[in-house]
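Morning!

This is the sequence you dropped in the shared folder:
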Amino acid sequence: MLCCMFRSRRTAHVRRLWKLRVHNETRGEEESAEELELKSFTHTMLKRLKEKQLDALTQSVESKGGEVTECVLLPKCEIRLGKKELSPLILCCRMWRWPDVTSLTELKRLPCCTSAGGPAYECCNPYHWSLLLQPDVSVSTSGWEEMEKAKYTDDLDRPPDEAVSMETGMTPTPRRNEFSDISAQFASGVETGQSTLNGHWCTLAYWELRQRMGRLLTVYETFINIYEYLPRGDGLCLHVLQENAETESVRRTREKIGFGVILSREGDAVWLYNRSQFAIFVHSPTLENENGRTLNVHKVMPGYSLKIYDYNRRQFLDNIHDPKYLDGPYDPYSIRVSFAKGWGPHYSRQVITSCPCWLEIMLNIDR
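The structure's back. Tokens below.
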């Protein structure tokens, strides 16, 4: 009796997952044959999952990554079907997120993935992964190899209590105990198990047009969710900071923030993952072209991750920047992110303060 109940639950999970699959836009007989083949691979893979793994996978896919879900570990060996083989991770991503993905090199693990799986296993939860965006940034390769290996030196570090805003000038970063109450206000009580760094690594400011909303927030955790709405969200809830909007553009843009972004510090880089349903736009000093005069704003589509700050490249650019190419103020530690609306020479909005909803990320270089 108990065995039949478990079998029934498993069948229900499989049916729900199959209904939630994404479809390739192509049509025709070839697509139908590929669909049947993909279905066979999927059923083979799902048979290997335990009940708890099926629960996690179903919850993750149904919530579109909005819920905190566990890893779904499977052996790294490829699934065989006749003469063909397919990686379980690629299969899950093709089934429930990106039907055209073909290679592991197109993917990046998200910081919410708590298990690397070791040498034999890999997490196949498709919402623990993102597509990897490779920006087109030109830079001289002279000396780059040496800079990649270089360690940070004290003269390149910033004092830990200083954060400079490009929009407001010098803004002192509050000490940690000043934000104990507001940090608790942003969190909804969901434990993520994420680790913290020694001291804060950045300070966040949320802006609507030219007005900063609420207070600054210092970030100590290795990653933080920044969102308008999440089913069970923890991190920085922008809705808490917002007041009644006076302009229609702000109201419309707020509705597009949705699940927002994940901001993370990973080794010598800062990463941003777009988990919303609309594009976000990023400007960062280390994503600028070498000695370029044109503002370089990068568009990040939903589901993509972008390395928005490279500490090694920043050190390299500091050494080769020609002052005559710097038009106006230049802050090598400030990143700006606009939700849904772009700005710069290729958009109607020329400056970030014309964007309805945007973030300012002021980095703190650890000593």
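Headline: The chain has nine helices and 19 strands.

More detail when I'm at my desk.
O.
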